[in-house]
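Forum > Structural Biology > Help requests

Title: Can anyone predict the 3D structure of Alkylhydroperoxidase AhpD family core domain-containing protein?

Hi all, first post here. I have the sequence for Alkylhydroperoxidase AhpD family core domain-containing protein but no way to get a structure on my laptop. I'd be grateful if someone could post the structure tokens.
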Amino acid sequence: MQRMNAAEVAPGAYQAVLGLEKYVRANVDHTILELVRLRASMLNGCAFCVDMHSSDALRAGESSRRLFAVAAWREAPFFDERERTTLALTDAVTRLGEHGVPDEVWDAAAKQWSEKELADLVMAIATINVWNRIAVTTRTQPPTEA
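Reply #1:
Sure, ran it for you. Structure tokens for Alkylhydroperoxidase AhpD family core domain-containing protein below:
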């Protein structure tokens, strides 16, 4: 059962996070953004966000095969080098407490993305992590009907 509706209880804070969301939607490639959202949500155990972002990606034309493979992206052959560096950066940023962001992960991403694109990517990863923390903490559940 959901503990609270953060949008109702703290609307100003919720609107601030929505501002970040609008920024990343406007500045990060949609396919990349959905990979980031799905991977971070998987790592954070956010059922609501995994459901929402996999559904959104499917509606946008992403293949179910690639979406399932996000869970094992290092072994899957379905992702290009830019996507792989994005997923590695997503893993490192999402798991900051384990070992920070290793230089090799950052340097690989910096070779694939301009400085501005990389800044936007970091903002996208940070934003989904905020959403995950809100949804997991408040026990926000995905809809049971499709």
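The chain has nine helices and no strands. The chain has a mean pLDDT of 96.
Shout if anything looks off.
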